[in-house]
Amino acid sequence: MGINESLVITWAMMSVRMTTPILFAALGGLLTSRTGVFNLALEGMMLSGAFFGYYGALTSGSPWMGLLVALLIGILLGLLFAYFSVTLNVNQVITSIGINTVALGLTSYFSRVLLTDSDVIVAPTFKDIVIPGLSDLPIIGPIVFSHSILVYLSILILIIVNWFLFKTTNGLNLRAIGEDATACKTVGINVALYRYLAIIACGALASIGGAYITTVAVNRFLENIVEGRGWIAFAAIIFGRNMPLGVFGACLLFGAATALQMLLQVQGFKIPYRFALMIPYVVTMLTIALIAKKEQIGKVDA
Amino acid sequence: MGWNQSGYEALMQLKDEGFEVSYQENVDQSQVKDVLRNYAADGYNLVIGHDLFFTDPVIEVAPEFPDTMFGISGGAKSASNVASVTGTNWESAYLTGAFAGALAGIYITGLPPQLHVIVVLLVSFLAGALWALIAGVLKVSLGVSEIINTIMLVYVANLLVDHFIDGPLAEPGGVISQTAAIADSARLPIIVNGTRLHFGFIIALLITVLVYFIIWRTSLGYQLRMAGLNPEAARFAGMNNKALVLISVLISGGIAGIGGSIETMGSLYRLTPGFSGGYGFDAIGAVVLGKSTPLGLTIASLLFSVIRVGAGAMQRNLGVPFPLVNVIQGLIIIFIVGGSYLSRKLEILTGRRY
Q: What local confidence, expressed as pLDDT, does residue A3 receive?
């Protein structure tokens, strides 16, 4: 019992950490999907954030600098995606495939060009914050109060997004655009501006989510290090039914699946490690299948 | 102009389907149709766009473009476009096909060469088709987006295949993790002496012609095209759209599987972990660039292979990192999709399609 208990606490703590990158990207994707734009380039945006966040931290010696670089790259990618999907009004799916492909290529290219002759490939990372008193609490302490600043930032952004969407006029406008953009245009709402800002915010958030991976979780960059988390974030938006808290719940689930996978490996369970690695992907497929079925049964609900 | 009405109709029809409703509510109706017109004007991505987010406004837009193009031939790629499923699963079907093909090449012995090759092709077709069927069935029975599922399946297929190459099926007594080599009878002959061009190229061309024939000269092909162009009309005409989606998924997965086994039989001969060079992903770019026409796809595939081979040589001789290939391919895709904006504007100006 004692061993299992500590194992469960470890799992819960790791789940929170694995949730964070997905949550950043999913909250960004939520904003754009609420404006009626579907950003399938989350994966590429995360990957770019992961590399440039890492590289910024490595060259400057400060993870904050890395975060800033990632933020800028995310804004740029958001601008690019917005230009194609809003101004040019071309196919979002194919634009996303293009951005994802370029991001994979460029980050891998840069990592080979810029990092080869460098002995120092371990970048400085964000350290866990120890909150006096709270961090020492049993169970709650390690699970809730022993993380890096970015974990708390993601929760703060969750609260802000929720507040913005449902408590502000601008949020109401943004949701209205997703419901009926033509009607919004007629009443004088600047639809394109809202979409631009939502997509840029999405790029920034997804990029920070990627940077989390390289400046908190791991301290180096590996090619394709995001490993589908951008897609999982998109699944989280579907599973969370476009609601901030629902998306948070979905991210927790996928984060827990990722944590389980890591735990199974670390604990030396007799399961081939590649099967453990499959867990997040299989869980993602199962959950979106599950919600599809559920919505078919209670179709009025949505 | 029936603008709102079509949106309303679309929504009502979607409500019958449950899953997509929550999506549809967030789609900007005016944009849906613009996007659809755009697809139709470009001729290539009507099917891709329609399936996940914009299901039914197709009905209104489709008659405006009576000769909208479809995926034709060129391998797995466009066969799956025809009945409205985005086949991002080519990479995973390719993997499983290559894997199953390799197994058949290694463990089936004692067959005459021609027969052995045919057996391998069939086995890899089956493996690719069954793997693709996972996303297809989820799509048809539950309405789950195949875009996410196929990406997830790529990761799962990669891990699964690598697990077997690394573990249970590793060559006994081998130093590095790899499978045994396939039997000589399962190897494809070189068709031009002094090169590595093997018979697989001929097989690919034959399949291209075959798919072209199926799509344009058979009633199945007609139904597939109808289901892709105008699902509602196809259903009213008594076609079974779900069955058609599954058939196209089976065919496209199967052909991608053959793509994998051709690579195994023609040049790899044995599998190592991570053996796939991402050809399944290249296929997506080839479809976009080739605008899903048979000739276009073939030329685009050739171009992408030239880029790939050239990048390999540049890496070996000049140390230019190989991932530059992805950058070029991604830029091609982005410029093509951006160019569709221009062709739409030109169409408005001149009244002609480009």
A: 60
